[in-house]
Amino acid sequence: MKTKAAEWQWHLLFLLVLIVLLYPIIFAVSTSFKTMAEAFSGSLHLLPQTPTLSAYERVLLVIPFFRILGNTFFVAALVTAFKLLTGVLAAYAFVFLDFRGKKFLYFVLISTIFIPFTVIMIPNYITLSKLGLIDNLVGVALPQLADATGIFLLRQHMKGIPAALMEVADLEGASHLYRLRSIVIPLVRPAILSIGIIFFINSWNEYVWPALMIKSQAQYTLSLALQMFVSAEGGTDIPVAMAVSTLTMLLPLALYAMCQKFIISTFAQSGIKG
C-alpha cells in the first residue's frame, strides 16, 4: 500500500509539471482561434467560445509569411547539414584515427561547450561584418556550422561499434571513406537522425543571433517576425500574435513528436561509454 501511495504521489507530481509546461502552448493555440473581443474579455475560458481563423488570415495578409518560413527553413537546414557533416567527420577521427595530441585536442574542443554564446557573439559579428555578410542568411548560419556537443554525442555512439568490424575492414584494406560510408554511418544512423533534429529545432528557434545579424524584413526568420508582430500589434491584437507563435512552433513540435524515441535513446546511450 505504501508503494502504491508513493507511486500515485509521483504520478500527481508529474501531472502537475506537465500541466505547467503545456499551459503556455495550449494558451497560445487557443487564443489564436479567439476573436479580439474574447481575448480581451478577461474571462477564464481557456478554449475559444466562438472559434475563428481571422487571426491566421491577417497573418498571411500582413507579413510575407511563406518567404519568412523559407528563410527560417534555409538557415535551419544549412546549419543542420553542416553540423552533422563536421560532427560525423570529427567524431570518426577522434575514435578511429591515431594522431599526436588527440586527447588534448578533444578536451579543448569539448571545453568550448561551456563558453557562453555572449562571449563569442561580438567577435563573430565583427568578423562577418568585415566579410560583408551582415543582413545575409549565410552570415546567420556561418558561425554555427560546427558543434562540439554533436561531436561528443556522435563520438560516444561510435565508440560502441564492435572492434571486430573495423579489424575486418583493416584486413580488407578498406579506405576510411569506405569504412565511414558502409560501416560507421549505418550503425549510428539513429543517433545522426536524432542529433540532426535537435540541431534543426535549435536553429529554427534561434532569436538572439539572427536579431543581431538581420536588418531588413525580407531576410527575417520566424522568431524575428514574431517579435516584430508582438512589438507592432501585440498590444492590441493578441490573437494575431498567438497565431504567429502557433505557426512558429508547429514544425519543431511535429519533428520531436515523430522522433522522440530516437532522441531519448541517443542521450540515454551517450553516457554509457567513456
Strands, total number: 0
- Binned, the helix content reads over 70%
Give the count of helical stretches: 14
Outline the low-pLDDT stretches.
none
Mean pLDDT: 85
**Which structural category do the helix and sheet elements fall into?**
mainly alpha
Roughly what fraction of the amino acids lie in strands? Answer: under 5%
Q: Calculate the terminal CA-CA distance, rounded to whole Å.
A: 41 Å
Radius of gyration: 23 Å
Give me the strand/helix succession: HHHHHHHHHHHHHH
Shape: globular
Largest sheet: none
Quick recap:
This protein has 274 residues and is mainly alpha-helical.
What topology emerges from the helices and strands here?
Blueprint: H1 2-32, H2 36-39, H3 54-62, H4 65-96, H5 102-111, H6 117-130, H7 137-141, H8 148-158, H9 163-171, H10 176-187, H11 189-204, H12 208-213, H13 222-234, H14 238-269
Helix pairs in contact: 1-14, 3-14, 4-8, 4-11, 11-14, 13-14
Would you give an account of this structure?
The protein has helices spanning 2-32, 36-39, 54-62, 65-96, 102-111, 117-130, 137-141, 148-158, 163-171, 176-187, 189-204, 208-213, 222-234, 238-269. The protein has 274 residues and is mainly alpha-helical. It is globular. It has 14 helices and no strands. The model has no long low-confidence stretch (mean pLDDT 85).
